[in-house]
Amino acid sequence: MKIRMPSNDVEKKLYETFIRNQNTCPLCNSILEIKAVSYLENYTLREEATCPKCKVMARSKDHKMH
């Protein structure tokens, strides 16, 4: 799968906003600590994002590996 990078200023701004929202705490705006754990028995990858400042779990997602 080839990743297409933003080609114009509007797409670049949307991309930067998306990345910032994914990597910062929604409560205090600190940088999140992101941890990934692999579960090979069922081919999943768990992603957990926590804020080191307010100790809030901002995200916990399971991704299926193909």
Q: How does this structure look, described?
A:
- This protein is of the alpha+beta class and 66 residues long.
- It has a domain at 27-66.
- It contains 1 helix and 3 strands; from the N terminus they run αβββ.
- It has one helix at residues 9-23, and strands at residues 33-39, 44-50, 57-64.
- It has a 3-stranded antiparallel sheet with strand order 1-2-3, with no helix packed on it.
- Strand 1 (33-39) and strand 2 form a beta hairpin.
- The longest helix has 15 residues, at 9-23.
- The model has no long low-confidence stretch (mean pLDDT 90).
SSE order and pairing:
Layout: H1 9-23, E1 33-39, E2 44-50, E3 57-64
In short:
This protein has 66 residues and is α+β, with helices and mostly antiparallel strands.
What percent of the residues sit in helical stretches (DSSP H or I)? 10-25%
Strand content: 25-35%
Using only C-alpha atoms, the radius of gyration works out to 15 Å
Major sheet: order of its strands?
1-2-3
Overall morphology? flat
In DSSP terms (H or I, runs of 4 or more residues), the helix count works out at 1
